[in-house]
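pls design
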């Protein structure tokens, strides 16, 4: 109740006690709003975040992030905005992320757009990468590598992207999907035919030892 409202409420009732002065003009007590919690609201379904974010990380830090996800199946998609096959399959990573609750799976997209040019640092790639991520509503964990793409490919012995790593809940790499050996024919691997069935099997509790031995 503001000071301007008090005379209007008191001129006919002089004998009101100090305790009743907290009653508003409409006869209802002015009750303060409960304090708001700083903690985000939780959902029983384990719903994923609806924000699209992008973080610049080194490959070493990316590996550390993957290792920290034990207890969940992890899918890591290496891609770039200059790779048409990558962008064609990318919406399926988004769909996979949305299909399962966050306590079951972590989907990580890793942009390899940085080519190591001094005049085009990783930060300069952010606008184009974010534009694509926002167009696909990619609310999974999105990273932009601060290491040059060729350096990363050499380190992990990868000829070309797209490539997708799948880890089981124990943190073991079950399978790396790539097109280096021509295993998946001219069309290459797909989420529908290759990645999703494996992930569903792992989330369903199947042993990773029946799926792969951690090699390519």
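designed seq:
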């Amino acid at each position: 109740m503001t000071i301007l409202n008090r005379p209007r409420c008191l001129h006919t009732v002089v004998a009101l006690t100090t305790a009743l002065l907290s009653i508003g003009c409409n006869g209802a007590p002015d009750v303060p709003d409960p304090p708001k919690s700083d903690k985000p609201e939780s959902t029983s379904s384990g719903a994923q975040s609806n924000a699209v974010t992008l973080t610049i990380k080194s490959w070493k830090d990316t590996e550390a992030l993957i290792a920290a996800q034990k207890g969940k199946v992890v899918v890591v998609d290496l891609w770039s905005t200059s790779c048409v096959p990558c962008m064609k399959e990318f919406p399926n990573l988004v769909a996979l992320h949305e299909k399962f609750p966050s306590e079951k799976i972590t989907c990580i997209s890793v942009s390899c757009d940085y080519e190591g040019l001094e005049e085009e640092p990783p930060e300069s790639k952010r606008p184009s990468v974010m534009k694509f991520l926002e167009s696909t509503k990619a609310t999974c964990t999105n990273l932009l590598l601060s290491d040059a793409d060729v350096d990363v490919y050499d380190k992990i012995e990868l000829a070309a992207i797209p490539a997708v790593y799948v880890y089981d809940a124990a943190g073991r790499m079950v399978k790396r999907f790539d097109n280096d050996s021509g295993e998946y024919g001219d069309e290459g691997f797909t989420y529908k035919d290759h990645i999703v069935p494996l992930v569903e099997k792992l989330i369903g509790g199947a042993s990773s030892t029946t799926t792969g031995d951690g090699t390519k």
